[in-house]
Write a structure and sequence with these properties.
This protein is an alpha/beta fold and 343 residues long. The protein has helices at 9-51, 58-74, 80-92, 99-103, 108-114, 120-132, 137-145, 148-153, 194-203, 205-212, 258-274, 294-298, 320-338; strands spanning 179-180, 216-226, 231-240, 245-251, 281-289, 308-314.
Length: 343
């Protein structure tokens, strides 16, 4: 009989966790150091170019020569295009005390995507969200392509900006319009029943949570709420851990109707009465529909409500032009509301 000791599974688990943590820490440290180096190279390029600005082609010639020298000594990664990116990186984030601090927490690939955005507030949003939500480069790219920030912005009051660090955020800081659900694999005009759309969402729950945005966590599908005389089933229930409230989502495969609004209003009131805990804030109701009539929105309980919302959803990825046009229509609707309905 062997006297050899056999390490326990807990022992192996602990050692693996130590190594995994060490590798993550090493990767983070190396990544942060490289991002810092690229920023410093960009700054030095700008300083040198400014010193030789009297020469017409000084900047291009300088970068070509620098690219040859760095590639010869350090290998790949210092092409002319990359050096131009380093320069742009510094010019985009010149202040090391502000946005650059967030840049150092993300990979160079994340930063390359974000610095293409022209608006400073947009860049700050993607920097904050990419870090807070631990977005992969692919996830970040999708959020930028579908204009996640702009869609969120258009649900706010005119000329306001979502304040992610505000002490008392509102649900309006988290509701988008429209939602882009191309990952469900449904046709542009879904003939599927609401149950089939719901099933598609559940099968792609991680992607759906990403599209919903910061703070949403899944609670239940077809949650039953019972009164003394009836049973009601809520399509999807989430909890928003930032706002500390439940969010009921009612799915519609048709255009929004006043009956839909009445139904979500009843669901929210019922949920608040029968399910909401003493430490929870008032429940939010969100109708996801394929289209909506702004007249119905204007003259229903949706207007001015802090608990009821209706947003459209798209099942096919719109082109950038289509999304911009849709957001522009939403902006005009908001402005008309602000002006008392005048056109």
């Amino acid at each position: 009989m062997s006297d050899e000791l056999t390490p326990s599974s807990d022992f192996f688990t602990d050692v693996r966790a130590i190594l995994a943590d060490a590798r993550r820490a090493a990767y983070t440290a190396v990544n942060s150091a490289m991002v810092a180096a690229y920023w410093q190279i960009g700054r030095r390029i700008v300083e040198e170019e400014q010193g030789g600005q009297a020469k017409a082609n000084y900047g291009e010639g300088l970068l070509k020569e620098l690219s040859r020298a760095l590639t010869a000594e350090f290998g790949k990664g210092f092409s002319l295009a990359n050096l131009k990116n380093f320069r742009k990186f510094y010019l985009t984030f010149p202040d090391r005390e502000k946005s650059y601090t967030l840049c150092s927490l993300l990979s160079w690939s994340h930063n390359r995507l974000i610095m293409r955005e022209e608006d400073a507030e947009t860049r700050l949003y993607y920097l904050q969200e990419a870090k807070a939500q631990n977005w992969s480069v692919r996830q970040l790219q999708r959020q930028i392509e579908i204009r996640s920030y702009q869609r969120l912005l258009y649900t706010q009051a005119p000329h306001s900006t979502p304040e992610l660090s505000a002490p008392r955020p509102s649900i309006r800081d988290f509701i988008k319009d429209p939602y882009v659900l191309e990952f469900l694999g449904l046709p542009e005009d879904p003939a599927e029943s609401e149950t089939e759309v719901e099933s598609a969402i559940i099968s792609q729950l991680q992607s759906f949570l990403l599209e919903m945005g910061h703070g949403f966590s899944f609670v239940a599908r077809q949650m039953r709420v019972s009164t003394e005389t009836s049973h009601f089933y809520l399509d999807l229930v989430f909890y928003h851990y930032v706002l500390k409230c439940f969010v009921i989502i009612d799915l519609k495969t048709t255009k929004l109707t006043h009956q839909d609004i009445g139904q979500i209003d009843m669901y929210v009131r019922m949920f608040d009465d029968l399910k909401r805990g003493p430490d929870d804030n008032p429940t939010i109701g969100l109708i996801l529909c394929t289209d909506k009539d702004e007249t119905i929105v204007q003259y229903s309980v949706l207007k001015g409500s802090e608990q009821l919302f209706a947003s459209k959803y798209r099942t096919v990825l719109p082109t950038e032009a289509e999304l911009i046009a849709e957001l522009e229509r939403e902006r005009r609707v908001i402005e008309r509301k602000q002006n008392g309905g005048d056109t």
